[in-house]
Amino acid sequence: MNNNPIGLFDSGVGGTSIWKEIHQLLPYENTIYLADSLNAPYGNKSREEIISFCIKNTELLLEKGCKIIVIACNTATTNAITILRERYNIPFIGIEPAIKPAALQSKTKSIGILATKGTLNSELFSLTIEEFTKDIMVTEIIGEGLVPLIENGSLNSPEIFNLLKQFTNPMLENNIDRLVLGCSHYPYLIPQLTELLPSHIKIIDSGEAVAKQTKHIVFQNSLQKNTRNKPTLQFISNSTSKTLKFLLEDCLDEIQIETKIF
Ligand code: DGL
Q1: Which residues are catalytic?
Q2: Are residue 132 and residue 201 in the same domain, yes or no?
Q3: Are 191 and 246 contained in the same domain?
Q4: How much distance in Å is there from the Cα of 222 to the middle of ligand 1?
Q5: How far apart are CA 94 and CA 76, in angstroms?
Q6: How many CB atoms neighbour CB 249 within 10 A?
Q7: What number of other Cβ atoms are within 10 A of residue 159's Cβ?
Q8: Whose CA is nearest to atom 2 of ligand 1?
Q9: Domain range spanning residue 175?
Q10: From 20, 36, 44, 185, mutation site for ligand 1 pocket: most ligand atoms within 8 A of C-beta
Q11: What is the pLDDT of residues 158-179, one digit of tens each?
């Protein structure tokens, strides 16, 4: 089991931002990443649809022998992690918007959260908001339209800049000093957001925390790979792999990318 891969899935290419953090922290681990780009975006789908995509992805990763599964998608985590944990006897690690650190760090007592409709409407999200933001003003904005543009690789398009301006304006009016990125696609927009936002606003994403938690769970369950040979790093997309190649261009000689219907 120890040399079996860590499985990851996302509605598309965004979760590669999490894969990069995990690979950095656990460089010898074998990994399999599923990009369900054919069904992206998950954020506008019903809870039932999101759950059924998550079950399909999990079963494929289990067939491939994954020892743990990282749900590299906030929308999938907030809507389906409880059900997946009940249904399958394997550790799941999820990603959720980093509300707690943002609330604790904010000096203006005002934070912004950019996420999908599916995440903002989920019960898990409401419970976290209730627990950690009692004395904090929270400006929640749905990042409608961002995921398809990122899936296309249009990171520096005028459309992206216009949407980001539109989404962050109400946050600026509310004097936020922390912006939480509640979608694993959005870390790819940090350069654009940094250009648009005043420098006192800190952008917070959950990638590093998820990687640390993944390492912790691997070691806690004694599942760490026991050889230091070159890992197999597999990416499977059910759509074009053009954007995957673009986002992973720094490590193309280490990884394998395959296109396949699932
Ligand atoms: N990466 C997914 C997330 O973290 C994107 C959601 C979507 O596909 O709409 O929520």
Answers
A1: 73, 183
A2: yes
A3: no
A4: 30
A5: 8
A6: 8
A7: 13
A8: 73
A9: 99-206
A10: 185
A11: 999 999 999 999 999 999 999 9
Q: Which residue has the tokens 């004694």?
A: 222
| Whether 260 contacts 63, CB under 8 Å | no
The burial class, CB within 10 Å (0-12 / 13-18 / 19+), for 104 is exposed
- Ligand 1 atom closest to the CA of 40, numbered from 1: 8
- Residue 46 neighbours by CB distance under 10 Å: 10
When divided into structural domains, the chain yields a total of 2
The answer on 72 and 159 residing in a single domain is no
d(CA 176, CA 179): 7
Q: Can you read off the two tokens belonging to residue 105?
A: 């760090």
Q: Which of 30, 2, 8 is nearest to 207 (CA)?
A: 8
* Ligand 1 pocket residues where CB is under 6 Å: 10-11, 14-15, 40-43, 73-75, 116, 119, 147, 183-185
- Residue 237, pLDDT score: 97
| 202 plus 215 within the same structural domain | no
> What's this model's pTM, rounded to 2 decimal places?
0.97
Q: Mean of the pLDDT values across residues 16-33?
A: 98
* Distance (Å, whole) CA 258 – CA 8: 15
